[in-house]
Amino acid sequence: PIAIVWHRRDLRLHDNAALYYALKAGRPVLPLFIFDKDILDHLDDKRDRRVEFIYKEVLKMQDELQKMGSSLLIRYGHPLDVFKELTSEYTIANVFTNYDYETYAKGRDAEIETYLKTVGVGFHGYKDQAIFDRDEVLTGTGKPYTVFGPYSRNWLGKLADPFYLKAYPTEKYFDRLYQTPPTPVVTLDDMGFEPLGENYPKPTVSEKLLSEYQKMRDYPAERGTSELGIHLRFGTISIRDLARQAQETSPTFLSELCWRDFYFQVLDHFPHVEQHAFRREYDNIKFLNRPEDIERWKTGTTGYPLVDAGMRQLNETGWMHNRVRMVVASFCIKHLLIDWRIGEAYFAQKLRDFDLSANNGGWQWAAGSGTDAAPYFRVFNPTAQAEKFDPKGVYIRRWVPEYNSLDYPTPMIDHAFARQRVVEVYKEGLKNY
Ligand code: FAD
Hints:
Layout: E1 2-7, H1 17-25, E2 29-36, H2 37-40, H3 49-67, E3 73-77, H4 79-89, E4 92-98, H5 103-118, E5 122-126, H6 148-159, H7 207-216, H8 229-234, H9 239-249, H10 251-269, H11 291-299, H12 305-317, H13 322-335, H14 340-350, H15 356-367, H16 382-389, H17 394-399, H18 415-430
Parallel strand pairs: 1-2, 1-4, 2-3, 4-5
Helix pairs in contact: 4-5, 6-10, 9-10, 10-15, 12-13, 13-15, 14-15
The protein binds flavin-adenine dinucleotide.
């Protein structure tokens, strides 16, 4: 019998918890990746950066494994169907995998675990993508944190123990990989997707960037952030390696990794946030959701240059600077009274580093409805934000070349008017609470 390691958002052989425990258990280990039809069928745009990225990374893994006489099994289908096939093709003792905290993934894993049990196959899950997860960081009374400050103090305190950032030395046991001739490859075309031919950022960050991170990270014209989001999303970099590097050079960067864990545990403990406001009363706010406003926001033609630059950067590259994400999200919700879920869904479709937990956290923060949210009456002024964080307009002109010309629209809404209106609308929505 063999063991299967089912890779999902951990597309690497190095420092991988599930792979390590599978190899250590002693049976021959065959790694597996499933292109999940349930997820892919929901993507309308068949030129999807994430799918292309995953595809490239999966082929890289397969290549690495083939060099060691093994292979990566690559399947396309519904995960349960794939496991049914695999249990008839191979004699499998156990399946090892790393946890995923999204509701869909938790349901899928539970279903597969139940099926595997009926055929006598063990299913084992591990923490790998987070530094601390589930109930590892709780309040004094054993409850999940809903405020970042105290969570991060507790998180940092625990991190003083080097144990948590130790790498899993998978390399030591690679001779236990299941030896097999190369297994067949599915193509992007087989799955109905087209390649974009894009280059993605490297899965590394320089010491220089980390040491200047605190000073530079708020200025969207600079390359002051790591752009590692996509690698963290798909596990093509080890969070432990990265956090150790940050521990030595940049407490501010480490704190961003703490936000990542924070939102994982919010999603894990409060799955209602996927559909609803974390603070339920915020579900009563009456948004306008005017189609023409939504369209102008999406296309970056609002007449607010920082908002427009951000949306165009997102549309063209699949990435947007964090400072600008905050500004465009606030503008969408508060200036235009568009439901945060509409903005959230648009980011989910476009962001190459899309991660349900962080995206939901970011949008609920901007809506004022989330765990550690900005109070609703605090409304970003997009002009003041531009003056402060892009004082020379370098970022704006990069993405909005017609800025300052007659072709550029006047602001679609007056800031003072919008500010007053949103405060009224929120007050009205929240008045019975
Ligand atoms: P860096 O500044 O280099 O940070 C390093 C890593 O830390 C990031 O890659 C990310 O994994 C993590 N991180 C940083 N900030 C946060 C944060 N606030 N919350 C959680 N993790 C964080 N981040 C996502 O990874 N996916 C999303 O879908 C996402 N959607 C967002 C939506 C909104 C409205 C807002 C305001 C923020 C969102 N963020 C999201 C958080 C943040 O903007 C991005 O992580 C960051 O801009 C990615 O760029 P970077 O990799 O250069 O980040």
